[in-house]
Amino acid sequence: MRRIAISVAASTMTLSLAACGALGVTGTSSEASPTKGNDITVGVLMPEKTNTRYEEFDYPIIKAKVASLTDNKGKTVYANGEADADKQAGQMQRMIDDQVDVILLDAVDSHAIADVVKKAKDAGIPVIAYDRLAEGPIDAYVSFDNELVGEVQGRSIIEALGQGADTSDKIVMMNGSPTDPNAGQFKAGARSELEGKVTIADSFDTKGWSPDVAESNMAEAIDKIGKSNIAAVYSANDAMAGGIIKALNAAGVTKLPPITGQDAELSAVQRILAGEQYMSVYKPYPQEAEAAAEMAVAKIQSKDIEFDALASDKVDSPTDKDISAQLVPVVALTKDNIKSTVVADGIYKVSDICTSDFEAACEEIGLK
Q1: Which residues contact 347 (CB under 8 A, 6 or more apart)?
Q2: How large is the angle between the packed helices 181-194 and 146-161, nearest 10 degrees?
Q3: Which of 39, 16, 17 is nearest to 27 (CA)?
Q4: Please, what's the b/e burial string for 265-282 (b: 16 or more CB within 10 A of its CB; e: otherwise)?
């Protein structure tokens, strides 16, 4: 995928179609001549349930946005592949057979799904890749700048180690699933910040993003490197960070090294408060999910001006070039900006975060 530079945002803002004028685009929804009205069906395919974001945030936001864009006449149909590529292929084929109007696809395996993407294309059903860049003739892509995610994680490790960081510091890298193209981009971004500054003493690709696999791999790394010799752990996401922490605790580590994450899961936000996890990458799901819904509706209603404004970036996949895309910026989430990110964006209420076990930590940072 061609690298597109996007600066890290200090706060987030939901993209709306009203912003089209700011992009130098003229024309409105009322001026378009859609081939379909508001009575449309959007198929939504999510990849797994281990990461809670897909069912707690992404899909509900997409569903609500499709409804609001279509005067509550449009509907969504949903399926979750549960980390099984064959299962997801069957789910997508059923959506094709049912003749949905457009499909938002977050692929379990970006390569394996390519043939089914081609079947959707042959059936005249547009496919918009969501969050992960699927192979095959997709019509557009909406996600985050994935190399930037890894860069933010890598820079955070160096920041946590402080001015004394050098190549004697040993880092363990717990990367994501090898079937997820995003995982390779996260890893590449992180390595670009870590290599030459610290020593990557061990590195794992984690099947299915499984926390249990991450825990087992971390136990192996501890045995190999020594529990007192691990300066920091790069964890590609929050769920795996939880497994990594279990392995460190089981090994008797009393002072946890800096551990990264991604997705700003509630449990991770609380671990950050408690000092168990150093940071997470907050990816503003409302912005990504609403943009995907807007792109899907604009595509099927032939609102080309709006669609082009929403997908003004370009990316390459292994099978296709110059795919229209929107890449959303990300935020490094630490103790210092919990209130201005996940709370301000309505992802969590303070009461969700500051349960009885975390009241003191919340008081300490003024989170009330």
Answers
A1: 57, 264, 285, 286, 341
A2: 40
A3: 17
A4: bbebbbbbbeebbbbbbb
- pLDDT digits 0-9 by tens, 316-342: 999 999 999 999 889 999 999 999 999
Q: Give residue 313's identity as a one-letter amino acid code.
A: D
For the chain, the residue count is 368
Alpha-carbon separation of residue 116 from 36, 55, 59, 134, 136 (angstroms)? 24, 23, 21, 11, 8
How many whole angstroms from its chain centre is CA 361?
Answer: 27
Instruction: Find the largest Cα–Cα distance for the chain.
Output: 66
3-state DSSP call for residue 104? strand
Euclidean distance between CA atoms 102 and 128, whole angstroms: 8
DSSP summary character for residue 366: T
Structure tokens at 196: 């030459």
Q: What is the mean pLDDT of the chain?
A: 90
Whole-prediction pTM value? 0.76
Which of 223, 219, 346 lies closest to 284, judged by CA?
Answer: 346
Nearest to 71 by CA among 40, 31, 32, 28: 40
pLDDT tens, residue by residue, 97-142: 999 999 999 999 999 999 999 999 999 999 999 999 999 999 999 9
Q: How much of the chain, in percent, has pLDDT values that exceed 70?
A: 90
Tens-place pLDDT, residues 5-31: 333 333 333 333 333 333 333 344 333
The alpha helices in the chain, defined as continuous H runs, are 53, 59-69, 85-97, 114-122, 146-161, 181-194, 211-225, 238-250, 266-274, 285-300, 304-310, 350-353, 359-364
- The structure tokens 């590529």 sit at 85
Contact 81, 93 (CB under 8 A): no
Q: What is the DSSP string of 68-83?
A: HHTTT--EEEEEE-TT
The predicted structure's pLDDT at residue 35 = 63
Question: What CA–CA distance (Å, rounded) separates 225 from 227?
Answer: 7
How is residue 100 annotated by DSSP? -
Q: Which residue has the tokens 């089981």?
A: 250
User: In whole angstroms, what is the distance from residue 333 CA to residue 107 CA?
Assistant: 26
CA atoms within 13 A on the CB side of 98: 16
Contact assessment for residue 76 and residue 66, using Cβ atoms and an 8 Å cutoff: yes
